Structures are given as C-alpha cells and as structure tokens.
C-alpha cells in the first residue's frame, strides 16, 4: 500500500506515528486477504504447488501481487467467449 510508504518516514523522521497506526492495520488486513485468496482460488485457476508458493512469496515483495494478477489471473478471465470455445 503506497500510503504506508508515506506513513513510515513520517513516523520515524517527523515523530508522527498516527499515520502508521491507521494505515498499518489496513495494510495487514489486505495482506491477509491476499494470502487467503491465493488459497481460495488456486484450485479454480489450476495452479500447481510451485505456482502457489511463488504467489505467496509475491505477497511480501512490493508490486509483485500486481504482476501475479496481471499475468496469472487476468488472462484467464479476459478471454472472450469465442476464444474459450475455440
């Protein structure tokens, strides 16, 4: 979450911990939601154990979950009905 990148320097450089106390829990909930969704959707997407582990590792790398969504999830959902029938 980009707001956390603003809140952390404010906490340590400007002695303003309020931003982290608000944005931190939101970030944590979104992180747990991502990890939960990986487990919920892996069977639907037909992921192997290796791909599931890589998606979970992506949870701790900045921007990596966006890449997982773009290249592993969205292509399956973006197909037009004519493409799926072929």
What would your notes on this structure say?
The C terminus is likely disordered. 81% of the residues lie in helices and 0% in strands. Helix 1 packs antiparallel against helix 2. The relative contact order is 0.08. With 86 residues, the chain is an all-alpha fold. It has a domain of 54 residues.
Helix count equals 5
**Approximate shape:** elongated
Structural Rg: 17 Å
Through-space gap between termini? 39 Å
Order of helices and strands: HHHHH
Q: What does the average pLDDT come to? A: 78
Percent of residues in β-strands: under 5%
Question: What class do helices, strands and sheet pairing give?
Answer: mainly alpha
Helix content: over 70%
How many beta-strand elements? 0
List low-confidence stretches: 82-86
Major beta sheet summary: none
Task: State the gist of this model.
By secondary structure, this protein is an all-alpha fold. 81% of the residues lie in helices and 0% in strands. It is built from 5 helices and no strands.
Question: Which key terms come to mind for this protein?
Answer:
disordered C terminus; single chain; mainly alpha; 86 residues; 5 helices
Map the helices and strands.
Layout: H1 2-13, H2 18-45, H3 49-58, H4 64-78, H5 81-85
């Amino acid at each position: 979450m980009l707001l956390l990148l603003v809140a952390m320097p404010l906490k340590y450089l400007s002695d303003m911990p309020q931003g982290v106390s608000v944005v931190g829990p939101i970030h944590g909930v979104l992180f747990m939601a991502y990890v939960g969704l990986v487990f919920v959707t892996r069977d639907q997407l037909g992921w192997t154990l290796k791909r599931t582990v890589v998606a979970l590792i992506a949870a701790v790398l900045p921007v990596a979950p966006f890449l997982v969504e773009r290249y592993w999830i969205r292509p399956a959902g973006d197909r037009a009905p004519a493409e799926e029938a072929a």
